[in-house]
């Protein structure tokens, strides 16, 4: 990996750690289409993902994702099945398997409670994930695993949290106001006595 790219990925992951509480080993939720894309490009998926997040990672695949790989008619199906067996299984709420992408969409919901990084190829799902604050998104571009830049939503949340950190707590603000009022009253009473 190029030094410039590694530096930008490191900065991005530090942002997610500071603002959203991510920590190593990062949990990477891997979609079936990402596994198939990685295998078709002959990438060592695990190593490339760890390189992209600049740290240790725990790889998760859902039962719906595994069943989608089993049903796929891709030429790389056998290799994808072998690759998915190396990943940890993440329980999903579906009794009957749905598509792997739909499963990930439901797991993520409206906020990233479990601090998942998501490795996915589907453009529509990636666009939807960008609207959720604090979701590092990874995908394969040509034969490289790419960590997308921070979304605008994540940057806005980061700025808001910074402002909250810099703001004084309400108790301290009330104490300062009371002190200033007390000082002003003392000054006013001192002036009246002089007259």
What does this protein look like?
This protein has 195 residues and is α/β, with parallel strands linked by helices. Helix content is 57%, strand content 14%. It has helices at residues 3-20, 32-40, 45-53, 63-71, 77-85, 100-108, 123-130, 152-166, 170-194, and strands spanning 26-30, 57-62, 88-90, 116-119, 137-141, 144-147. Strands 3-2-1-4-5-6 form a six-stranded mixed β-sheet, with helices on both faces. Helix 2 (32-40) crosses helix 5. The longest helix has 25 residues, at 170-194. The N and C termini lie far apart (79 Å). The relative contact order is 0.15. The model has no long low-confidence stretch (mean pLDDT 88).
Say how many strands there are: 6
Helix content: 55-70%
What is the alpha-carbon Rg in Å? 25 Å
Order of helices and strands: HEHHEHHEHEHEEHH
Which key features would you list for this structure?
195 residues, alpha/beta, 6 strands, 57% helix
Short description:
With 195 residues, the chain is an alpha/beta fold.
Helix/strand layout:
Blueprint: H1 3-20, E1 26-30, H2 32-40, H3 45-53, E2 57-62, H4 63-71, H5 77-85, E3 88-90, H6 100-108, E4 116-119, H7 123-130, E5 137-141, E6 144-147, H8 152-166, H9 170-194
Parallel strand pairs: 1-2, 1-4, 2-3, 4-5
Antiparallel strand pairs: 5-6
């Amino acid at each position: 990996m190029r030094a410039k790219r590694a530096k930008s990925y490191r900065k991005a992951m530090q942002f997610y750690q500071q603002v959203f509480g991510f920590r190593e080993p990062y949990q990477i939720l891997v979609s079936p289409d990402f596994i198939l894309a990685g295998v078709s490009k002959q990438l060592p998926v695990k190593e490339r993902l760890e390189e992209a997040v600049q740290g240790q990672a725990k790889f998760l695949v859902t039962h719906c994702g595994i069943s989608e790989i089993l049903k796929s008619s891709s030429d790389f199906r056998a290799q994808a099945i072998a690759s998915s067996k190396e990943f940890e299984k993440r329980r999903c709420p579906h009794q009957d398997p749905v598509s792997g992408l739909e499963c990930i969409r439901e797991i993520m919901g409206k906020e990233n409670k479990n601090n998942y990084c998501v490795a996915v190829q589907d453009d529509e799902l990636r666009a939807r994930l960008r609207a959720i604050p604090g979701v590092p998104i990874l995908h394969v571009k040509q034969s490289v695993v790419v960590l997308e830049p921070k979304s605008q939503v994540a940057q806005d949340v980061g700025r808001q949290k910074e402002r909250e950190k810099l703001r004084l707590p309400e108790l301290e603000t009330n104490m300062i106001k009371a002190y200033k009022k007390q000082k002003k009253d003392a000054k006013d009473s001192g002036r009246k006595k002089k007259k």
